[in-house]
Amino acid sequence: DCMKLNPSFLGIALSSLLAIDLWASKRLGVCAGEDSAWGSARPLMKVIEVSGHGIPWLLGTFCGGGAPKKTQPTMLTHCYCLLALLLDLVLVAAVKGLVKRRRPTHNKMDMFVTISVDKYSFPSGHATRAALVCRFILRHLVLAVPLRVLVVLWALIVSISRVMLGRHNMTDVLFGLLLGYMLYSVVEYCWLSPLSAPALFALW
Prior knowledge:
It contains nine helices and no strands. By secondary structure, the protein is mainly α. The protein has a domain at 53-191.
């Protein structure tokens, strides 16, 4: 009762930030429905949504890694990417199940291939995956500068589209980007060591 009558400064600050997050997220959800401000752009946003979904990335990586005439470094790269994507799915699902933050009330649940924990919002799996894939591509693929810029823009657009579609609040996306960025660093440190790389290649 004393806490309710005399809330701490930290409690007030967190409540205020949460209120701002919910308000701004709702204002930015301009593609949340066909009758929204930018409802006509909703189909395009949903295409972007699919581009950041886990299933296309997992299937593409798995099929690409199994192609014939792959050199050892190329196969190891595919193996590394596939394991990183699997770890991303498991980690995001675990955090969602632990936090259990509901999706925004203005969200329309018509997402592409969902599972049980997808009813929760925190963190954004698309944002986590976008940051992870972006860092992976920039680190392991030799691309011209314009293509590298496009990869970064793709990751940003996928993340922004989550709020525009009403799927997530802003803090879900920001934490997802941070989580994906950190996850890549951890995965690269653990899996690309001289000791683990040969074992991964043998497993693949």
